[in-house]
Write a structure and sequence with these properties.
The structure holds three protein chains of three kinds. By secondary structure, chain A is of the alpha/beta class. Chain A contains 18 helices and eleven strands. The relative contact order of chain A is 0.14. The radius of gyration of chain C is 14 Å and the shape is globular. In chain C, helix 1 packs antiparallel against helix 2 and helix 2 runs antiparallel to helix 5. Chain C has one domain: 2-Layer Sandwich (Heat Shock Protein 90), CATH 3.30.565. The chains are: A alpha/beta, B alpha/beta, C alpha+beta.
Chain lengths: 448, 114, 137
């Protein structure tokens, strides 16, 4: 199998990173190490969940984005925004005001990424009904979860739903719409305003698709800051009237926890938070958790409302979106909603393009392609591990004593990287007594 | 070169042959500082040392070193020998100094690690 | 490679920990995902059985390049009628155990279904031994 390097959006700023081990410790796939005083990322292990970015005390981990001026390469400059963006603003800013603010930044169109979710409900229900043999179907909505499964739960790859996320459906259908309105394909630039790193990685190196319909990615906090500063300065009183289309209630809530599962037939569950997801996937893999039809799973707490590029508090975002949904319901009763959506015109086109190709497992856990060799390595790992103190201090630059042992056997580290092994080999006795007071007698004397 | 030939060269003897051990040696490293030894990851390596205690055996075990030459007549304890045997480690002892042993083996074609 | 884990009877909060550890090792030694899944299901069932029925037990694992062999030995009440226990749906699990989602009476048949060789032996009043063998080549 050819080794492909997967795109990852997270980047470590070398001159800012001072080599603590906060990020190393929180990474759910053990993709980070400290080497030469700096955090280093193993690209193929990273699932772009962004936990490291949250943990970094000096903001040395950032998310690469396309240069904002890229939008001017296109005649039709579409900001594809998730409803989460609306939730970033205080409640007294109406949606249309926010849309106008986005257009003032240079976009010619604003289109919400959840258009298409209502079509997808139907598609998912059919998919779940068809895939009775491999239960549960796990949603492909969150790209960090898809990558987590590929890397850590290869046996569950076949459970991943092979349908596109609304984001892609919105992008392809709006592109088609603009072409029908007279734009040439290369005149259309669709820029996704992302709440997280995983979506960027999914767009730059898509899983199960040949290429993405999205031309560029702008970080949500970047655009929010631009628009919100504009509001604060009120330097512009012009109000460009943006696209009049409204998301339906189910579409507004799609990116929140419970957004998908609520509409799917059968026994469904919504899981959010990467730790919860890992625990649940373990359960599915053991066969302990079974008889579910559909699992919605998102890597962030409160789903996309908790995305690492959001600015607002996640709970306030959820509150704001829920209010928007309630208002939509009222407006609908009062006959104020014109449920005439662009995307519905293209529904048959979307249905033809809703599938994604197979998703391949790419386990990063295996020690060697050859099982015999891998077993030999495992024996050595267990041996080395038995001599390490087991306190997972991180001073060797790896997340745990276990991972140091693995790195040694894979030739990426030395046992002597362990400071306790070092001290027990060149024992200045007073130092050892002090360490024993903290960690217990003989803990660092396993070699004697 | 195999460990018996090495023993002959330094006028010593193989006092322990590890279970299922491999007896060929290409390179050698000489040190009494076990933390330096732990930085090695070379196959078919001989460790030449004057430090004969349990740490030496444990270090060899961790660094996956299968051959040890004790110089200056240092004698491992029976406990050390038992563990060495179990871990597949071969042990040679000789009465030469470290410098002399190194010089002889280098002359006989054993290469340094670096 | 040999591994040994002890299993405490009655502690459902820890049920499955040993299986998870072994599963991680199986992934690391690059055993095919579909085989791991079958082993995982069988050993998890067996581990939970020890927790649900026995006072204490241990799980012994032997992995070599051709097969994965797992033996569960427990000290417990044993199984009176093995043929009956092998029938789908037969269960002696207590109400408390069932309420936790276990004890549906699928344990032994499910283990057998998921491995290549299956053995169960038991002495009433002493304990039960279950052996699961899966060929990986």
């Amino acid at each position: 199998m050819a080794e492909t390097v997967f795109h990852h959006a997270l980047t470590i700023l070398e001159d800012v990173c001072f080599g603590c081990t906060h990020c190393v410790k929180v990474c759910p796939t053990e993709a980070l190490r400290v080497r030469d005083g700096k955090a280093r990322l193993t690209a193929n292990r990273c699932i772009d969940c962004g936990r490291c970015m949250q943990a970094c005390p000096v903001n040395a981990i950032i998310i690469k984005q396309d240069d904002f001026s890229e939008i001017y390469k296109y005649k039709a400059r579409v900001a594809l925004v998730t409803s989460i963006l609306i939730g970033q603003f205080p409640r007294h800013y109406p949606t249309r005001k926010i849309y106008s603010g986005i257009m003032e930044q240079g976009f010619s169109h604003v289109y919400e990424a959840e258009h298409g979710a209502s079509l997808l409900i139907d598609e998912i229900n059919q998919y779940v009904a068809r895939h009775g043999a491999v239960k549960p179907v796990i949603s492909s909505f969150c790209p960090a979860i898809v990558r987590l499964i590929q890397v850590r739960f290869p046996s569950l790859v076949e459970n991943i739903m092979l349908l596109k996320a609304p984001l892609d459906l919105a992008a392809i259908s709006f592109k088609k719409e603009l072409m029908e309105r007279g734009f040439a394909e290369d005149e259309i630039g669709i820029f996704y305003i992302t709440p997280c790193a995983a979506k960027i990685a999914a767009i730059k190196s898509p899983v199960g698709e040949k290429n993405s319909p999205i031309n560029g990615v702008i970080n949500m906090d970047t655009l929010f800051n631009k628009v919100y500063s504009g509001f604060k300065k009120e330097h512009s009183s012009s109000c460009i009237v943006p696209e009049k289309e409204q998301l339906r209630a189910e579409e507004m809530a799609w990116s929140l926890t419970g957004g998908e599962a609520k509409y799917i037939n059968g026994r469904c569950l919504s899981i959010d938070g990467i730790k919860n997801a890992i625990e649940f996937l373990e359960g599915i893999e053991n066969g302990h958790i079974s008889n579910f039809d559909f699992i919605e799973m998102r890597a962030c707490d409160q789903s996309c409302a908790g995305g690492i590029l959001t600015t607002s508090n996640r709970f306030l975002t959820v509150e704001r979106l829920e209010e928007r949904i309630v208002k939509y319901g009222q407006d609908k009763i009062e006959g104020k909603i014109f449920d005439n959506k662009t995307i519905d015109k293209h529904s048959s086109f979307i249905r033809e393009n809703v599938k994604i190709d197979t998703i391949e497992p790419r386990s990063m856990l295996k020690l060697d392609e050859n099982t015999e060799e891998a077993l030999r390595k495992m024996e050595r790992i267990r041996k080395i591990f038995s001599y390490l103190p087991g306190i997972d201090c991180g001073a060797c630059g790896t997340p745990s004593c276990r991972s140091l042992a693995e790195d040694v056997v894979q030739g990426h580290a030395h046992t002597s990287d362990c400071i306790f092994i070092q001290t027990s080999l060149n024992v200045p006795s007073d130092q050892e007594i002090r360490a024993e007071k903290i960690w217990g007698k003989d803990r660092f004397r396993k070699l004697t | 070169m195999d460990i018996f030939e090495i023993a002959k060269q330094v006028e010593g003897s193989v006092i322990c042959q590890g279970n299922n051990s491999e007896i060929s040696v290409n390179r050698a490293f000489a040190s009494d500082l076990m933390s330096d030894v732990l930085t090695l990851s070379t196959d078919s390596l001989l460790l030449i040392t004057g430090l004969a205690n349990m740490q030496t055996i444990r270090t060899a075990e961790m660094a996956d070193i299968k051959n040890i030459l004790f110089v200056r007549n240092k004698k491992p304890t029976t406990e050390m020998l038992a563990i060495a045997r179990q871990e597949g480690i071969n042990i040679i002892t000789c009465s030469k100094s470290m410098f002399a042993a190194c010089s002889i083996l280098h002359g006989a074609g054993i290469k340094p690690v670096y | 490679m040999e591994l040994e884990y002890s299993i405490e009877g009655g502690d459902f909060s820890k049920a499955g920990l040993a299986s998870s550890e072994v599963k991680k090792i199986l992934k690391q030694v690059n055993i095919k995902p579909e085989i791991i899944k079958r082993i995982a299901v069988a050993m998890y069932e067996a581990e939970v059985n020890v927790v649900a029925h026995a006072y204490q037990g241990k799980m012994l694992v032997n992995i070599d390049p051709s097969k994965v062999y797992i033996r569960f030995e427990d000290e417990g009440p044993g199984i009176e009628n093995i043929d009956q226990a092998m029938q789908e749906g037969f269960s002696t699990a207590s109400e408390a155990v069932r309420q936790m989602g276990f004890g549906a009476g699928m344990g032994l048949p499910n283990m057998k279904k998921n491995v290549d060789e299956f053995f169960v032996g038991s002495v009433v009043g002493k304990g039960t031994t279950v052996e699961l063998t899966t060929y990986i080549k």
